[in-house]
Amino acid sequence: MKRIVLTGGGTAGHVTPNIALMPFLKEAGYDIQYIGSHEGIERKLIEEMDIPYHPISSGKLRRYFDPKNFSDPFKVIKGYTEASRLIKKLKPDVVFSKGGFVTVPVVLAAKRRGVPAIIHESDMTPGLANKICIPCATKVCCNFPETLKYLPEGKAVLTGSPIRQELFAGSKEEGLSLCGFTSDKPVLLIIGGSLGSVIINNAVRSCLDSLLEQFQIIHICGQNHLDSSLEGRTGYKQFEYVKEELTHLFAATDIMISRAGANAICELLALQKPNILIPLSAAASRGDQILNAASFEKQGYSYVLQEEELTGESLLKTVQYVYDERETYKKALKESTLNDSIQIIMNLIQTHSK
Question: How far apart are CA 248 and CA 236, in angstroms?
């Protein structure tokens, strides 16, 4: 039996694509081992799946001043030693890395031990962790055509991002029932990221009356962002957070508003939902969401509304435009070459396994 080491952590976006690959890896006969950090979100997610989990020391490498910059390099060195021992012990045929700082020691250790490593870059431009890993990687997968120019020509592969198959298993009827909605009015779903977005929430609620004239609205607004004054409003259902029910809500949805994190928009692409992207502003991030959104708009998958331009009035006009043009967006989404990411990545893994 071939063995694969998966690694990735720090955020859910660095873990869920690995989880999406697991059923296909098992079907292909791979024994799966996971290397992650001691306290990252990945540990809970992977251990819940009964996958052997091996924690290592992990430190963050920063481009800005922070007192931890003096201690974290020693954590990375310790993590490298631990990862090297694990790779020697586990003897994997291949390593697949989804990103995050915990992956740096693992990919470097794989190189030292002669194990092929395939890494995946979610965003338009490689983050610092993947920049360090790229010289040690056998292949580098990416989500955007524009990313290819930032990667070594012989290593770069445009794959898209692995999507959890359960996202496609939802029931429209169940989704409508969860919200108390009917089937005779289209559904608008708003997701402001895992923590919610105050600016998006406020814009939606400022034009809620007008939106409800045409749409039923599912509003996933983030923890502590519920508006009690809107509870029981006909055609409007708000959630702080949704887990298992999300597949059903997706199935019931006709049009979406979302942030532009790489994994989130790849899910929109796979689900073929006409969408409006409101990327995090450059003031609140390194600007990766702005670049991600621009690429999707250029390819005809999304309409982009910048956060600085977001008002109730601009949101209302944009929603109406995208809904009117929904068939054009559906056509572009359906024709995308990035909808077969799992098979492309599985082929790479099987080809480069020792």
Answer: 16
What's the length of the chain?
Answer: 354
Distance CA(105)–CA(96), nearest Å, equals 13
One-letter amino acid identity for 239?
A: F
User: What does each of the 354 residues of the chain score in pLDDT, given as a tens digit?
Assistant: 999 999 999 888 899 999 999 999 999 999 999 999 998 889 999 999 999 999 999 856 545 445 554 455 657 789 999 999 999 999 999 999 999 999 999 999 999 999 999 999 998 889 889 999 999 999 999 999 999 999 999 999 999 999 988 899 999 999 999 999 999 999 999 998 666 789 999 999 999 999 999 999 999 998 889 999 999 899 999 999 888 899 999 999 999 999 998 888 999 999 999 999 999 987 767 788 999 999 999 999 999 999 999 999 999 999 999 999 999 999 999 999 888 899 999 999 999 997
Of 61, 56, 55, 34, nearest in space to 132 by CA: 61
DSSP 280: P
Q: Where does residue 170 fall: left (phi above 0), alpha (psi -120 to 50 degrees), or beta otherwise? A: beta
Beta bridge mates, 34: 6, 53
**Beta strands per DSSP E along 221-347:** 236-239, 255-258, 275-277, 303-304
Six-digit token pair at 219?
């509003």
Q: What is the C-alpha separation between 97 and 163, in angstroms, rounded?
A: 15
Alpha-carbon torsion (144, 43, 164, 348), positive or negative: positive
Amino acid letter at 330?
A: K
